[in-house]
Amino acid sequence: MKVTIIHGSPRNGNTGTAERFFTDELVHCGDVEFTDVFPLKALPAFCIGCQRCLGGESCPHAQHVEPVLEAVLAADALVITSPHYGASTMPASLKNLFDHLDFLALAVSPREEMFGKRAFIITTGSGSKAAIGTIAGCLKNWGINCVHSFGMRMLTNAWDKMPKQKQARFENSLRRAARRFYAEKRGKPYLYTVFMYYLSRFILRRYVGSGSYPYNYWDERGWFQKRPF
Ligand SMILES: Cc1cc2nc3c(=O)[nH]c(=O)nc-3n(C[C@H](O)[C@H](O)[C@H](O)COP(=O)(O)O)c2cc1C
């Protein structure tokens, strides 16, 4: 299994600790190959909102975006980790990654590889787990049909400050989740994906039309006649 880990925390702290329990357990499950993406280093510039990607043109930061996109597309599974930050739930560097890859949205130019991928989200927070909802929304919007998560309400800002019993409980839960995630068989597409496909098809036909992007992107792939999943 090829796993790309998107390390959403700008530092090696609680979220890194939690991720290592999960990925260590994956290694015990079988043949797993990891690729690491650190958004803070991988994408040194912010999305400037030019919308070229939404029109099928190259991003001004393509030299940084392309390797990240390749790592995402090549993976059988994604592991996205993030601490919860009060302003918009995730660190700016991770949000920047999602902004740079927003052209993968179902209504624009999704990639066929996404529909067969699975993803696992790990979040830590002093109290909140709300980052899960935002990240899961982005992944489902890319067409990923199998999104699981585990969020930790630590009620402190440091892993070691949690009672030992609580640390062990989180570790056990993460290891169990990793085993389940590794063994999971591909299921039916989410109702959300099916709904978004038909909604996107309607919008592209009615409001975008032939000769424009992303209508042409969909048309070249035959997606107006047949679902890509
Ligand atoms: C800028 C910032 C904002 C934060 N906002 C929240 C918050 O609104 N709710 C919360 O539960 N924790 C919040 N936290 C705490 C972190 O989510 C928590 O300590 C997390 O485990 C840190 O992960 P890390 O060690 O991987 O950086 C915030 C931390 C930072 C740095």
Structure description:
This protein has 229 residues and is α/β, with parallel strands linked by helices. It has a single domain (2-189), classed as 3-Layer(aba) Sandwich (Rossmann fold). 42% of the residues lie in helices and 14% in strands. The protein is built from 8 helices and 5 strands. The protein has helices spanning 14-29, 39-42, 62-74, 92-100, 131-141, 164-183, 191-208, 215-220; strands at residues 2-7, 33-37, 77-83, 118-125, 147-153. It has a 5-stranded parallel beta sheet with strand order 2-1-3-4-5, with helices on both faces. The radius of gyration is 18 Å and the shape is globular. The two termini are 21 Å apart. The model has no long low-confidence stretch (mean pLDDT 97). The site of flavin mononucleotide has 17 residues, from helix 1 and strand 4.
Q: Which terms summarize this structure?
A:
single chain; 229 residues; alpha/beta; Rossmann fold; five-stranded parallel β-sheet; 8 helices; 5 strands; 42% helix; binds flavin mononucleotide
